[in-house]
Amino acid sequence: MNHFLRQEFNKLYNKEAENAYFCPGRVNLIGEHIDYNGGLVMPCAITFGTYLLVSPNNDGVFRFRSLNFDDKLDIPVQDDYGKTAEYWFNYPLGVIDYFLKDGHPVVGLDMLFYGDIPISSGLSSSASIEVVTAFALNNLMKGGYSKLDLVKLSKSVENNFIMVNCGIMDQFAVAFGEKNKALMLNCDTLDYQAVDSNLGEYILAIINTNKPRKLAESKYNERVQECQAALQALQLELDINNLCDIDTETFNKYSGLITNEVIYKRAKHVIEENDRVKLAAVALSKNELEEFGRLMYASHDSLRDLYEVSGAELDAVAEYCKTDSDVVGARMTGAGFGGCAIALVKESAFESFSKKVTAYYTDKIGYAPSVYRSLIGDGVVELAG
């Protein structure tokens, strides 16, 4: 891949790329819709991601090119930038804007991006672009930022430049990911633990529902508000800042404070899911994949029944997986209402799994999903020449 991209860079700019970088996408193995409730999530980096090849130029111009999109941008170096309509290059432009506003002198750059993450799949292609750009600029301009600084910087770009109200999990996972490790991350404190995740004879299957995600944003904001309502009810008697400050046992004791049934269901999912992440970390570290798989199914059921963010497409994938003896566990991953599901599938059975889940899904939903295989990979990195 690196060699092919270097040839493409040469064709575009008629010179060699001086530096090359890669940043993966991510899946969240378990712990869904609790990042904004101060809870624990367990993402891992995947082996798809974003490549960035770059060389400084003497023209005082930033040139953005991508092998994925026809849209391109040439823009002079200036003091600050604003978002330009809905183009892919807003993500790297936002990072450059951050560096400039933080007082770092930036020279003109010729850039070529290429991503093999399926677009709009919920596998964090945007975080991948932001972090690879931030990592590259920090490296090239000797910015002096730590990796955690780059994560916070990239989240700030997403929130304040792109104007998407996301948490920090995506940027954190693609920066700090480690091969064969899941990251148990506390979204409140940013403390994390790398959990050994030797999948043995299993691999991650990523099943993209290919459903356009129209609802996700409005429903996401609705769920955030519902969780705030649950927290306020519990704070009448409990001294807590986040729903995930209590465990299931405490919640059951005080849940009578929540009088609205829908709000109760939302809070029950969040608090039980947070407990599931702790159990999942133990199961993974002991290599108890069957127990981990059971927790994945329990997570999906809760997201379907209590949090109501799955939908027919994601449910069809989980239903099929429960019937396949080569699958140890499956669940939706990400915000829901489309996007992706993940499954732990025997590597030797991946091809037959792919065919069977595609047939089942197509029969139920009316169009085919896309099925990918991935291992748990490393975070952002500079690539050797």
UniProtKB/TrEMBL annotation:
<dbReference type="InterPro" id="IPR014721">
    <property type="entry name" value="Ribsml_uS5_D2-typ_fold_subgr"/>
</dbReference>
<dbReference type="InterPro" id="IPR006203">
    <property type="entry name" value="GHMP_knse_ATP-bd_CS"/>
</dbReference>
<feature type="site" description="Transition state stabilizer">
    <location>
        <position position="26"/>
    </location>
</feature>
<feature type="domain" description="GHMP kinase C-terminal">
    <location>
        <begin position="281"/>
        <end position="361"/>
    </location>
</feature>
<keyword id="KW-0299">Galactose metabolism</keyword>
<dbReference type="Pfam" id="PF08544">
    <property type="entry name" value="GHMP_kinases_C"/>
</dbReference>
<dbReference type="GO" id="GO:0006012">
    <property type="term" value="P:galactose metabolic process"/>
</dbReference>
<keyword id="KW-0460">Magnesium</keyword>
<dbReference type="InterPro" id="IPR020568">
    <property type="entry name" value="Ribosomal_Su5_D2-typ_SF"/>
</dbReference>
<dbReference type="GO" id="GO:0004335">
    <property type="term" value="F:galactokinase activity"/>
</dbReference>
<feature type="domain" description="Galactokinase N-terminal">
    <location>
        <begin position="7"/>
        <end position="56"/>
    </location>
</feature>
<comment type="pathway">
    <text>Carbohydrate metabolism; galactose metabolism.</text>
</comment>
<keyword id="KW-0547">Nucleotide-binding</keyword>
<keyword id="KW-0119">Carbohydrate metabolism</keyword>
<dbReference type="InterPro" id="IPR000705">
    <property type="entry name" value="Galactokinase"/>
</dbReference>
<feature type="binding site">
    <location>
        <position position="126"/>
    </location>
    <ligand>
        <name>Mg(2+)</name>
    </ligand>
</feature>
<dbReference type="InterPro" id="IPR036554">
    <property type="entry name" value="GHMP_kinase_C_sf"/>
</dbReference>
<dbReference type="InterPro" id="IPR013750">
    <property type="entry name" value="GHMP_kinase_C_dom"/>
</dbReference>
<comment type="function">
    <text>Catalyzes the transfer of the gamma-phosphate of ATP to D-galactose to form alpha-D-galactose-1-phosphate (Gal-1-P).</text>
</comment>
<keyword id="KW-0067">ATP-binding</keyword>
<comment type="similarity">
    <text>Belongs to the GHMP kinase family. GalK subfamily.</text>
</comment>
<feature type="binding site">
    <location>
        <begin position="32"/>
        <end position="35"/>
    </location>
    <ligand>
        <name>substrate</name>
    </ligand>
</feature>
<dbReference type="Pfam" id="PF00288">
    <property type="entry name" value="GHMP_kinases_N"/>
</dbReference>
<keyword id="KW-0479">Metal-binding</keyword>
<feature type="active site" description="Proton acceptor">
    <location>
        <position position="170"/>
    </location>
</feature>
<feature type="domain" description="GHMP kinase N-terminal">
    <location>
        <begin position="90"/>
        <end position="177"/>
    </location>
</feature>
<dbReference type="GO" id="GO:0005524">
    <property type="term" value="F:ATP binding"/>
</dbReference>
<dbReference type="GO" id="GO:0005829">
    <property type="term" value="C:cytosol"/>
</dbReference>
<keyword id="KW-0808">Transferase</keyword>
<dbReference type="InterPro" id="IPR006206">
    <property type="entry name" value="Mevalonate/galactokinase"/>
</dbReference>
<keyword id="KW-0963">Cytoplasm</keyword>
<dbReference type="InterPro" id="IPR019741">
    <property type="entry name" value="Galactokinase_CS"/>
</dbReference>
<feature type="binding site">
    <location>
        <position position="158"/>
    </location>
    <ligand>
        <name>Mg(2+)</name>
    </ligand>
</feature>
<dbReference type="GO" id="GO:0000287">
    <property type="term" value="F:magnesium ion binding"/>
</dbReference>
<dbReference type="InterPro" id="IPR006204">
    <property type="entry name" value="GHMP_kinase_N_dom"/>
</dbReference>
<feature type="binding site">
    <location>
        <position position="66"/>
    </location>
    <ligand>
        <name>ATP</name>
    </ligand>
</feature>
<feature type="binding site">
    <location>
        <begin position="120"/>
        <end position="126"/>
    </location>
    <ligand>
        <name>ATP</name>
    </ligand>
</feature>
<dbReference type="Pfam" id="PF10509">
    <property type="entry name" value="GalKase_gal_bdg"/>
</dbReference>
<keyword id="KW-0418">Kinase</keyword>
<dbReference type="InterPro" id="IPR022963">
    <property type="entry name" value="Galactokinase_bac"/>
</dbReference>
<protein>
    <recommendedName>
        <fullName>Galactokinase</fullName>
        <ecNumber>2.7.1.6</ecNumber>
    </recommendedName>
</protein>
<feature type="binding site">
    <location>
        <position position="220"/>
    </location>
    <ligand>
        <name>substrate</name>
    </ligand>
</feature>
